[in-house]
Amino acid sequence: MTHHNPLECIIPPYVVEKVAQNGTPAQKEWARRTILQSAQIRGQRQAVADMTQRGQRMAAPARDCTVFDCGTGTDLPGTRVRGEGDPACNDPNLPDIDEAFDGATLTYDFYKDIYGRNSIDGQGLPLVSSVNFGINYENAFWDGTQMAYGRGHEALPPAERLFNRFTIDLSVIGHELTHGVVQYEAGLVYFQQAGALNESFADVFGSLVRQYKLNQTAAEADWIIGKGLFSSNINGVGIRSMKEPGTAYNDPLIGKDPQPGHMNDYVNTSQDQGGVHINSGIPNHAFYVVSRELGGKAWEKAGKIWYVALCDKLTRVSQFTDAARLTHEAAGELYGKGSLEQKAVETGWKEVGLPVSASEGDKVDLSGCTRLVGGLAVLLLGLVGKRALTRKK
Amino acid sequence: MRIEFERSGGFANIRVAGAVDTESLPPQEAQALSDLVNKLDFFALPSVIPSVTGGADRFQYTLTVEDEGRRHTVELPESAATGDFANLIGSLTALARRGS
Ligand SMILES: [Zn+2]
Ligand SMILES: [Zn+2]
Description:
- The structure holds two protein chains of two kinds.
- By secondary structure, chain A is of the alpha/beta class.
- Chain A has helices spanning 13-22, 25-41, 51-57, 95-115, 170-184, 192-214, 272-279, 281-294, 302-312, 320-335, 340-351, 358-362, 370-380, 386-392, and strands spanning 65-69, 79-83, 127-131, 140-142, 147-149, 224-225, 240-241, 250-251, 255-256.
- Chain A starts with 12 loop residues before the first helix and ends with a helix.
- Chain B has two helices and four strands, in the order ββαββα.
- Chain B has a four-stranded antiparallel sheet with strand order 2-1-3-4, covered by helices on one side.
- Chains A and B meet through strand 4, helix 5, helix 6 and helix 7 of A and strand 1 and strand 3 of B.
- The structure holds zinc ion (ZN) (2 copies).
- One zinc ion (ZN) sits between chains A (175, 179, 199, 202) and B (11, 56-57).
């Protein structure tokens, strides 16, 4: 599923980026090699913010989104129906083709413009989306290489419909595409707490893509995931609520939204890969609280902290307490120890019953990265020379 | 023959579950179901069939069959639910919906 390296701790790439911009020629060369090395070792990890320029320098491939139609079959990807530069279908009977295309391009642009990330793998991977998957298929998924969307029950008589098409809300498309990003970054195993974190990152960035499109502040956003997925036969606004987990739907046909928003209500279950779509409510709500505390546009600070933690700190097996500690650590590195941003992260995790103590947040795991940290120390002392460079190869 | 069926997971994680006694079905439907169970050699299957493809938001199925004093449960991912499994799960999903 992923080709992740056990070496999980490196010098924060934004530090390396700074050196690449402001260092002496030898330092710049060190930074260049480090960037290349981390790209090779760690697959596709990226720094934040100033990566756009680097992407241009390296002439990375441009956005490449394509939509396929499965014709209610289950063979992927199906028949190509729309790609970059093609006109919109504008077919009221097939809205999912344009929705999947626009959603993928908007999500690509969001990652590129806000975090300097070039596609799912950071290296311009073509984005493949298939619509009209399966018969009355009430789901959307990421299969490890592409996105797929069912049309829900839109082909059934209105009275029998529970689900609309799964392309109906941009947050679903942002969610599926983010599963790809998670696969290439932390690589969180899709089981129990690591899986719930995988789910939560997908919800966080799925919600942020829609907030970005609508230019909403954290206070203005609805924080609903899968808005409008239920037909009018169901009493529910969407599938999940990051603002109030457990309140998205309540209906005699399908039951009540089972998401907890606090560790006291953590659900132990063998269903759903150990409750990955259930317990994700806990980290989801932590992110919402951080965004609420910081105010403004949630993708700018809260989203950046979560993105850096996902790319540079979390591992395949991270648990909720790791996510709390590592987002706290990322906030300290990005905005300073004891900064308002770092305090907001503390408030967020505390509200869901996962308090991060200040001392715990400062702990740095040095295992596996001594060489790189050593390299940084040498660099900061201004002693970097050809010998250090060859050693770093 | 009695078959219990449960689906969890997927983006929306809406549980679908049901149980069917083939004796309560029209003979043709009952025969089709037990043919599928036999073709799968259900009682010889491992209790957990692992996912080979990875990915996220796919369904997870749990099937239990009781027949002639035997009882066996198999848990499998959607990615493994192809061929006769797909046909069996399709029939059971339709029955579960009808029953709910
Ligand atoms: Zn709260
Ligand atoms: Zn998901």
